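Standup notes
- DV: blocked on the single-chain target, sequence here:
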Amino acid sequence: MSSANTYQQLFAAGQALRGGYIVNTSDPGDEPIWVDITGATGATLGNGAMPVYPAAAAGTAPGAWRIPPTTSAVTIYGPAGATFRAVRG
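- DV (later): unblocked, structure below
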């Protein structure tokens, strides 16, 4: 994440027609990355955002979430420097 607690675009509108996946690869215990399939923008976390947590401790699996198919943009919100992997469909 390049900015702290401001929505950033993960997939543009129409690019997640078959959904996708996101995995939070931040350090264990870091704050979650929030995924919003409504295309929310701005600096206020939306009610529809889904948290994706990093691993709870070293050696455990990081959090992952299946992004459902959507025609909206998919945006993410979280701490600056948070790392993740994301793929469409």
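- Follow-up: The radius of gyration is 12 Å.
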